[in-house]
């Protein structure tokens, strides 16, 4: 299909689907707490988690990730605020050496929490250090580049916002990669983070791909199900890794983070064959 034809298809899909998807997203994100059954369930679930771990300190992002199969991150975050308000848990903000802060939370009966809190913060400080945290994004891109190359995709662009004679000029955003195989062209964005990528950036990258006439693909550790549905409706694909990828040289640290904090991290030498096969099957169906 020519670029102009792709653009027309994208425009029609975008106009027809975006309101449906927007309404679905808003139903989860903006529902009043008092009427949101999912949020009530999240509060009850977390209340049980804290009751079973009365002498343990968590941080909010940790709980969001641990419960993401059942609840959106923002739902878990709201539930934490609600439990604070009702007095079921206590909290404390800690500033990290990187300048960011994390919110520590624990059961209200845990009086001598300081030691556990310090141990948790020390481990978070270790994996957040510039030589680790700053390199995870680039490492994720390297892993994806190798995976697509191994699957015989040709990289025709990197850190780019154009394809053929079409260029994105609305902002200075770029796509991490543009790959091609069998006449299909994909704009690939990689996010090797524990949290969700920014919602506005997600939508912008879809529009960027639509504008230049290529198919959007997001390779992420995790995305909300509503976003995955939205992307699918617009003809794109989400390759969910489930794990944050650490360099092989930091395998020991990844193990400590996984075992000590219960977070989904891994340090494989390359993307597993099954991961790329999911994308290949979708590509071949097209």
Describe the structure.
- The chain has 286 residues and is of the alpha/beta class.
- It folds into two domains: 3-27 and 131-285, Trna Endonuclease, Chain: A, domain 1, CATH 3.40.1350.10; 31-128, Arc Repressor Mutant, subunit A (Orthogonal Bundle).
- The chain is 51% helix and 20% strand.
- The chain is built from ten helices and twelve strands.
- It has helices spanning 3-29, 37-52, 60-66, 73-86, 114-128, 130-150, 199-212, 225-233, 251-261, 273-285; strands at residues 57-59, 89-95, 101-107, 154-160, 162-163, 166-167, 175-181, 184-191, 215-220, 237-240, 244-245, 265-266.
- The strands form four sheets. A five-stranded mixed sheet has the order 4-7-8-9-10, with helices on both faces. The chain has a three-stranded antiparallel sheet with strand order 1-3-2, sandwiched between helices.
- Strand 8, helix 7 and strand 9 (215-220) form a beta-alpha-beta unit.
- The chain is elongated.
Based on the coordinates given, report the CATH architecture of the largest domain. Answer: 3-Layer(aba) Sandwich
Strand order of the largest sheet: 4-7-8-9-10
| Fraction of residues in helix | 40-55%
Largest sheet descriptor:
5 strands, mixed
Q: Briefly, what CATH class of the largest domain? A: Alpha Beta
Structural class call reads alpha/beta
Shape: elongated
Number of domains: 2
Tally of contiguous helical segments: 10
Low-confidence stretches: 20-35
Multimerization state: single chain
Cα distance, first to last residue? 12 Å
Rg (CA only): 21 Å
What's the CATH topology label of the largest domain? Trna Endonuclease, Chain: A, domain 1
Query: Helix-strand pattern, N to C?
Result: HHEHHEEHHEEEEEHEHEEHEH
